[in-house]
Amino acid sequence: MTEPRATRPHIPGYGIPDDDRGTLPWSWARQQLEQALVYWVASVKPDSHAHLMPTWGAWVNDRFYFEGGLETRRARNIAANGWISVGISERNQAVIVEGEAVNIAPLHDAGLIAALLEGFVKYRDSDDYEADPANWRDPAGGLWELRPSVAFGWSRFPDTTTRWEFA
């Protein structure tokens, strides 16, 4: 995957600079996404109301992966409309990623399984959780992959506010 293109978002009245000086590199956003422990996933219910829930996940190869049963509200929402937003924040820093999520279970790609296990290892110390690839191989399970289309982030709003566009 090629690096996404960095630009400024158009948000009138918030003091976001007009030029690209001070935009953040994608490597900054990637690091925030890899290290985050809690991700907020927003999906849309069939009645068009928003649904927002926290989840654990792993940012691997510039994609977001998260687990979840097929009968959860989030999974049913994604089955009907795969477009979601995922956000993280720490103090005054934030990264928001928008794109389409798909259920990739059953997963048999050994390389991706190894990368996901490494991505989920952060929960071993923080929450005594060990990801189990057997769950990802089950066709009745839920392993979701967010394929990003656009992301937003800042380390100091509004000066560093950046929009990244994925090809």
Detail the topology: elements first, then pairings.
Blueprint lengths: L4 E3 L18 H10 L3 E6 L5 E6 L2 E3 L2 E5 L5 H8 L2 E8 L2 E11 L6 H11 L1 H6 L5 H5 L5 E12 L7 E4 L2
Antiparallel strand pairs: 1-9, 2-3, 2-6, 4-5, 5-8, 6-7, 7-8, 8-9
Quick structural gist:
By secondary structure, the chain is α+β, with helices and mostly antiparallel strands. It is 24% helix and 35% strand. It has a single domain, classed as Pnp Oxidase, Chain A (Roll).
Descriptive notes:
25% of the residues are buried. The protein starts with a strand and ends with a strand. It has 167 residues and is of the alpha+beta class. It is built from five helices and nine strands, in the order E-H-E-E-E-E-H-E-E-H-H-H-E-E. It is globular.
CATH class: Mainly Beta
Rg computed from alpha carbons, rounded to a whole number of angstroms: 16 Å
The low-confidence parts are: none
* N- and C-termini, Cα separation: 9 Å
Instruction: Provide a count of the helices.
Output: 5
CATH T-level topology: Pnp Oxidase, Chain A
Q: What is the correct CATH architecture?
A: Roll
